[in-house]
Amino acid sequence: SPRRAPGTAARVPCRVSSVLNRDAKQFGKQHMFDASEETCWNSDQGTCQWVTLDFPRPVKVSQLHVQFQGGFSSRLCTLEGCKAGEELVKISELYPQDSHAMQISFTTKTVLDKLKITFENSTDFFGRIVVYHLGVLGERL
User: Fold this and answer.
1) Does residue 27 sit in helix, strand or coil?
2) For this UniProt entry, which segments traverse the membrane (predicted)?
C-alpha cells in the first residue's frame, strides 16, 4: 500500500498562491497538513489559485488526497511536476467533487521533486479555494 510521501507535512517546503486577508496565522498553508478538522488553508480571491510542494528528494507520487470546503472547491485541478532544476510539465487533470468529503485521486506514478497543483475553476464566485487537508502518497526513491 502507498505510504505518505515523507514530510507532506510541514517538513516539505510548500508555497501557495495567496492567503485570505494575508492572515497566515488563521488561514495559512500549514493548516493543510496539521490533521485538524478545524483549520484550513483559505486562499484570497482571484482565478487560478495553486499549491507547490518541493520534496527534499525524488518521490514517485501515486495518490493525491484533498479535502475542500464545499462551495470553495475546484472543478478542475491540474497537476504538474518536475525533477530538480527542470521545467514543470503537466502530469494529469483531476475533476474533484464540490463537497467536504476527502477525495482520493490516483496519478500516473511520476517521479518528481516538485509538484504543483493548480485549482483552475473554483466553485466560489470570487475564485477562493478552501483546503482542509492535502496529502501526497507515494514512495521515496
Assistant:
1) helix
2) none
- Mention every residue, 6+ apart, whose C-beta is less than 8 A from residue 119: 43, 48, 49, 50, 74, 76, 77, 129
- Compute the distance between CA of residue 73 and CA of residue 88 in angstroms, rounded to an integer: 23
User: What sign results for the dihedral spanned by CA atoms 76, 82, 87, 91?
Assistant: negative
Side-chain-facing half-sphere of 91: CA atoms under 13 Å: 27
Per-residue pLDDT tens, the chain, 141 aa: give them: 445 544 444 468 999 999 999 999 999 999 999 999 999 999 999 989 999 999 999 999 999 999 999 999 999 999 999 999 999 999 999 999 999 999 998 877 889 999 999 999 999 999 999 999 999 988 988
